[in-house]
Amino acid sequence: MTRLKENDVNPIAPNLAAYNDKLARMTGCSLGEIAARASGKQFDHLDKQNQSVAVIPMTCGEGIIEGFTESVASIITYLGIKAVITKSSDAGGVAEAVQRGADILFMADDDRFVAINIRKGMVSDNGEATGKGYVAGLECMCQGLKGKNVLLLGAGQVGSSAALALVRKGALVTVFDINIAASQELSSAIEKLGYCVQVETDLEGALARHQIFFDACPGESVIHLRHISKDTMIAAPGIPLGVQGIGVDKLLTDRLLHDPLQIGVATMLWDVL
Ligand code: 2YC
User: Mean of the per-residue pLDDT values for the chain?
Assistant: First the structure.
C-alpha cells in the first residue's frame, strides 16, 4: 500500500467544493452520491444528523502524516457529518473518542486505514472501499459498465475489490498484474463467486486493445499517450498517478478519475453509517 505524503493530502481540504464540482461534471454525480452508490445505500435516506465521527491520529510505524487526519475530517464534514480530530493519539485517542460519544472512528496505521461504527459493530477498510468507490465513479462516467471491456491494472486489495464490483455491474474484466500469480488468484477467487475475469500477461497488447482502464497499481508510468484515444476513460485510485506523459492529464481532463483520499473516505463513511 503506497504511503501518502504531506503534499498529497494538503490540497484536499481547501479545494473540496471545486473537487466536487469537477466530479459532478465528469460523472454526473456528487462525491456523496458516488459513495452511496458504491456502498449500496440510498443517498438521501442516510441518517446524517445525529451521527458523530472522531478521527484519531496514529503515531505507530512510520508515524503521523502531516495533514492526513485533517484531510479525512474535512471530507467527512464536507459530506455533512460532524467530524473532530481527537487531541490524543493512538489508544488515548480511541478512549477520548468513546468518552466524547463518537459513533464512528476513523484511524490509519501503516497497514490498515479503517472506519469503525462502534454502535453497529461495522468496519470498512479503505482498500475495499476505494476499489468499489472508484468503480461507482467509473460507472457514472461511462454511463453504465454492462457489457463493456475494462482493463484492470493491479490485483492487490484495491484491484480485487474493484474486480468484484466491476463484474457485478456486468463489465467484461481483464486483469494484468506484474505478479501473474496475483492475477490468477484474483481470477479464481472471482470464479468461485460465479463470475469470470480474464488474466492478461501482455500489458502492451492489453493497453492497446482497451479504452476503459482501472489503474489500481502503484506504478508511475503505465498508461502512456499512445494508449489514449478519444474514447479512453480511466479510474486511477493508484498513488502515484499511473498516467504519465506530457499533456496526458490535459487530454483526459474530464475522463480521468483520480484523487488521493476523497472517494475512498466517502465510501468508508457510507459503508458504516
Ligand atoms: O497521520 C496518521 O495518523 C498516520 N498514521 C496515517 C498513516 C496512513 C498510511 N496509509 C496511507 O498513506 C494510505 C492510506 C490512506 C490508504 C493507502 N495508503
Answer: 94
193-238 tens-digit pLDDT: 999 999 999 999 999 999 999 999 987 768 888 899 989 999 999 7
- DSSP string spanning 44-68? GG---TT-EEEEE---STT---TTH
* Helix ranges, the chain (H): 6-9, 16-27, 31-39, 68-78, 90-99, 126-141, 157-168, 180-192, 203-209, 248-251, 262-272
Give distance in angstroms: CA of 113 to centre of ligand 1: 6
Query: 259: closest CA among 140, 133, 144?
Result: 133
Atom of ligand 1 at shortest range from CA of 110: 9
Cα(268) to centroid(ligand 1), Å: 14
The domains of the chain, with CATH numbers, are 6-125+264-272 (3.40.50.12150), 129-260 (3.40.50.720)
112 lines ligand 1 (CB under 6 A): no
**Is 173 in contact with 183 (CB distance < 8 Å)?**
no
Cell readout for 76 is 467527512
- pLDDT for 47 equals 67
Q: Which residue among 126, 128, 239 is best mutated to probe the pocket of ligand 1, counting the most ligand atoms within 8 A of its Cβ? A: 126
Cβ(143)–Cβ(169) under 8 Å? no
Q: pLDDT tens, 235-264? A: 999 777 777 665 666 778 789 999 999 999
